[in-house]
Amino acid sequence: MREVQAQISGHMTTETNHSNPVLLGLTPEQLRDIVAEEGLPAFAAKQLAQWIYQKGVGDFLGMSNISIAARKKLAEHYDVGFMAPVAEQHSVDGTAKYLFPTHSGQFVETVFIPDDDRGTVCVSCQVGCKMACQFCMTGRQGFQGQLTVADILNQIYSLPERERLTNIVFMGQGEPLDNLDAVLAATRFLMADYGWAWSPRRITVSTVGLRKGLKRFLDESPCHLAVSLHNPFPEERAAIMPAERSYSVAEMLELLRQYDWTGQRRLSFEYIVFGGQNDSNRYARELVRLLDGLECRVNLIRWHALPDEARFHEADATRMVAFRDYLTHRNIRCTIRASRGQDIDAACGLLNTKEKQVLS
Question: Is residue 136 among the annotated active site residues?
């Protein structure tokens, strides 16, 4: 493992000086309003969108098909909004973790996970989190702020491995459905013709399950959904995941069954396995009962130890295999997800920037 200050050059990570409004996160329609205010021709909005969202250029001077006078005028009044990570860590397994500044002066952690010909970025959507899950470092951090569309997109566009990306998962800090407007907007930029024109099959949004946001997400987004389940029994789940009290798994599944999961959009359930707590056949049987007839996948995740946390224990590998096989033999697709970046606190449940907010 090594940790260094980020030394990232190139136009896609130009620093924002915070004195000017940023263009990152504005739609082509909003960019048309900007160019009109600056007295520029309407077609300059399309050029700006292409430079920002297709090419990732963060310096107006590099936008060569816009007149020099127009570029200078834009640079005087606006910033593109790309900001390089201020620190990075690299795991022995190739995983990289970056500390990104936000436009409000806070910080979030973002993880890049290479896997043969795949490259996945795990994006944050909040500074901290309101959900207070007992087994998660971000939950311990508490909620410290929403990320803007620009903050979310910046983690992708200013990622050093941007050109290697094949998938994006909203599984970093924060609850995506608790910042749904920004999350949906960010995914639309990635899927838009003026952006990367990505298929929604390359984007997954996770949630613990929020009543106020789940139906809207299902109705408005074609992206994959991953539900953090972790325990099939309501009282036990509520003890470690307070969100269960306001929107139960039973209610959530009732809603999910109203949608078609046999097409391109995929439904998965994330299940952190705690040794001796939720890994017996009793829990496997209840999962089979709950998910019976629902087209989905269950991903088993090893719990990663937190500092000063004695309530949870890491699961035995043999037990996880037996749990997986129990589900698989009962027609529920189940995989054991490999832990990545644990040595740099980049694995599931370990992201936290509380100290960074204090130091800033």
Answer: no
